[in-house]
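Lab meeting notes turned into a lecture example. A postdoc, R.K., suggested we walk through two folding results consecutively so the class can see how the record format repeats. The first protein's sequence and structure tokens come next.
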Amino acid sequence: MKKKSFLGKTSFLGKIGGLSFAFLSLCLLLCRPDVAWSLERILEMDVCAVVERDSSLVVTERIAFVAEWREIRRGLIRNVPVVHREGWRRIRGDFRLMSATLDGAPVPCEVKRAGDDVELHLGDERFLSQGAHEYVLTYSLTRQLIFHDDGVELYWNVTGNEWIFPIERASFRVELPQG
């Protein structure tokens, strides 16, 4: 025996209406920023470290990222590790920010100590536009080279460990002094 709705027979338009509602609901769900496929992420982190004659590093980082106002609203926080261990000794390097830009324009950057890291708070009270952006940071860092009897070791964590976003691509290049 065929069941009837309380209104009688189910019409063709009623069936189509139910499917349309389900389709519309699915579309609205997938269009929400927190469900969509393009999540906030680091697209590319390109790092170049120039070893100076005094053994310090001059580092330039290019961080391309996508902001969608979930976690990235006003800027990024970049943690730069400055402490490493050499045997039982903790070695802390000196950090000096030289410049910071966002999409080619100078950007405010507050530098704070955070345990074994230096924490860079990039940005200000203005909201970033949603979409792709690029920070370029230049800083100097000391005491990251470890001298051994048979050579020199560069001890430095290029990307750091504190990102809450996936890094899709990272590259590192080191330039040594002549001679």
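The second example is placed directly after the first for contrast:
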Amino acid sequence: MSESTVLKLEHEYYKQHKVLLVRALKWQDENYKSSFLLRGHNLDNAKTWLRLNDKRDLHPPLALHNKLIGESEAAKGQLDTEVFISYSRKDSDFARYLNTQLQEIGKTTWFDQESISTGVNFEKEIYKGIDGSDNFVFVVSPDSVGSEYCEREVKYASERNKRFISVLHRETEPTMMPEALRVINWIDFKDTAFDKSFPELIQAIELDRDHAHQHTVLQQRAGDWVENDRSSDFLLNLTACANAEVWRDTAQKADKQPAPTQLQQEFIQDSHWAIKANKRRKVLVVLTVVSMIAAVILAIFAFIQMNKAKTQTQVAEEAQKDALAQKKKAEKSEKQAKEQTNEALKNQSLFLSDLSRQQTEKENIVKGILLALEGLPKNSSDKRPYVAK
């Protein structure tokens, strides 16, 4: 590597070292306000510079460099943007100074010299910056109102009902201005000292800032919704939708600026309908589940009752069998008793008959006859068997 190349590289290193250190010191002096953190291509360049030079032996990056770059990377995509600055390149010095002053009092800004990385679609990043900013500050000069790029930026911001704040930097014929800028009063930085006009700009930025910020948030959410084919996945949830409806109704009733856009109103309305439809689906699901549970309970109850009836039937059948067995047993016992009785009577009759024979042989005829008669049945109720012997 030639000496001239080495010197050039060293020059670039120390130049970036100084720029970042000045920025870091301002950030430190201002109690680490997030408005001083690096963004866009400034952050990308700083990360590359740190990665390539972190191991240098001579004058390496300082701890404060590392802290600024690290904190900037950690906050990437999380910082809300209060001000988008639109200007002509011929007014760059004024615009840059205005941007620095806004950052020093804690305002987060979108400034193309700090916010657009290399190798990206410039215009797309510009529009993305407008979408994400609460206020559109336009630096008025003959060059800016005559700029095709500035005109497109104003048109894009106007279509999204952004809040316009005009800053008069150089004398400009009002008739040359776009209508969106003509209808509002500008803040005079041309004939009035900067430090006297600047508080008026801050006051305009601070005016109803919650309303302006909510306008930005809803416009971004609605834009994401459109980019994703209006998918219900990108609609507002119940709480966010309720807040958005209050914001919309308040803005319309009080004629607040910036006014809700047509897209925002469609987004809020579709979110409302989706929430109602989701509630109906939930009610239907609950009813279906309750019906299924009731059906299961009834089925279980019917099964229990069926088993109970079956058990009772089995018990009754068993009882009937037991009764039949007992009846048979009783009939058998009765038969046996009858047979025993008959046998006893029979034996008695035989015994009397034998006594009668004995008496008759002894010629006790009358006594023999009486004994024979005693062995015979007395009446129809007497079950004594007749035994011929």
